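Q: What would this chain look like folded?
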Amino acid sequence: MKYIKFFIFVLALPVFAQQGGMWIPSLLEGMNETEMQALGMKMNAEDIYSVNQSSLKDAVVHFNGGCTAEVISNQGLILTNHHCGYSQIQSHSTVKNDYLAEGFWASSKDKELKNPGLTVTFIKEITDVTKQVLVGTEKAKTEKNRQQLIEKNISQLIKNSPKEPWQSNRVKAFYNGNQYMLFRVETFKDVRLVGAPPSSIGKFGSDTDNWMWPRHTGDFSLFRIYADKNNRPAEYSETNVPYQPKHHLPISLDGVEENDFTLIFGFPGRTSEYLPAIAVEQLVNTINPSRIKIREAALKEQDVFMRNSQDIKIKYASKYAGIANYYKKWIGENQGLKKSNAIAIKKEQEQAFLKRVKEAKLEEAYGSLLDNFDAAYKDFVDYNLAYNYFSEVFLRNVELLKTGFQLYQLEQVLDFRGEKAFNDRKENLLVNFESSFKNYSAKVDQKVFEKLISIYADGTPKQFITDKFISANKKELTKNIYNKSALTSFTSLQNLLSKSSPQTVIKALNQDKGYQLVKELTQDFYAKVLPVYQAKQLEIKKLQKQYMKALLELSPKEDRLFPDANSTLRVTYGKVKGYSPKDAVYYEPVSYLEGVIEKYIPDDYEFDVPQKLIDLYEAKDYGKYGYNGKMPVNFIGTNHTTGGNSGSPAIDAEGNLIGLNFDRVWEGTMSDIYYDPSISRNIMVDVRYILFIIDKFADAQHLIEEMTLVHPKE
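A: My prediction, written as structure tokens:
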């Protein structure tokens, strides 16, 4: 705890205003507050996070566990990205009523669409519980015993910490387990679709423009939170009423200018800012190239079918977007890490760290850390590569293999947990399979399988797979499996799983060609890769925790040691600002509707534009949302964001909504590992474009009427 206290003391020192970092909102008082105000913020820390009064945190929700959303009316209306609500929009779409293509706007509350399983979570209070979590751990004889004690302490904290009956408690680790925070939360389970623009607006530019600037995407959708009569969380019911929030965000009509203050409030998913140079080097040279190659092949095959079939386009739209997102991100990440010289900079930082270790006479505690990292990562690389090949091919990008893997796990349930557990898991699988096969095409998956199984055989280190599989004719193997396997349709799979007894099911499974391949390769993976991968990963995790502890203790005050993202509520602040991606090129910070028209390609699935939007542009009919005869669409800032910040509110100096975060620039995607303020930029939808689409394009003025529109600059 003395290291954490030292760190907090360091943060309290006033320094020149900086940008970058993902800060815990309950700990903003002191240096962070001073920095934000130096950047132009007119609020104080209590306005952002408070337990005793309404604050910005009360308008920010974790959307379905993966994105962020914000409350924008006193009737529970929430705003998030189109891509965050994509699967819900897709689930309500058919060829006849294609809400992805045509958009959806509920004309009244009784027309809003329910979404089973969709949740939003409010953070009510954040408390530091480091001391309680680590009590007694100094006596643990092994790291395994220490982790078991930590888990026990966390379980007791969750159970015994104060909360209302409709609330829950969660504990999260920070700084690689050197700090722990308790979150008291409320999760709402009745969240209905209110509105979404057509994909030609909400996904304009699609995968070509993804991670790029300039962007011209109206990436937003609207939902509404419903509660019981007491304004508390409840399962879906027709008697539920719109949620009345403790705070909702006013919306600024005044727009943005370069150097305006911006605050992003949301739930960033995962960053690794304190990796050693050897880890980053391995990521750039080995791991990312393998993942990129796999996804590139999958996307290429899916794209051919999607361009030639509207039915397949609808079925695969969400899957394709999910695969493409990180495919392109990893490409940009590698480019950014190389451009910013991140590996060399980290090596310089490590030499400075060793110097501080020596000066503090702590060589015995920390002097061998970096050498241990080098040895651990060199031993880890082949196992890490094999793990990523298996994960990408079997668990993400080939649906037959993913199905087969789930069935292999089902067989393990029978072996280790018995028939009742087997039957329960089987019924759950059938429900999931029925849903997933609605968006499945065997002919698409067959092409993907053929490409990826060859890449798997060629790329996986040879010591982990058999010579027989490596030398097999992959074209014949593919044809044989997709002609004969029950794993290619829900009907045949349902028939197989409906055999009279668990033993009969397993016997039939083991006679299936597709399952045989999955089982063979999964058993190889479990025997040769996974145990060593997990052991080496645990060793690296322990080293990383020690390294983080050393950094907290020894880093000079000017170093910015914010905690890595872990899907908890964070604040990141900066300014609206352009940037120079390469020599003699400068990107302005705001894009306009004119750019949409410049990119317009009639009937193209990425760059088509609705005729009504063209008409509004030609008439310059922007209402009160335009600026100097132009319609702003997107803007960029220096906020440090990552996955999970999608849908986060962009907030101005006075606490008003000015935009909706949805992406980063390609050159700056490496900010998950190394933040460079010269090229790291987040991309936001200008809130005026959102209002313009709702009002002038969708004629949904009833939604505008329930918002609070303000002019803070007047």
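The first strand starts at residue 60 and ends at 63.
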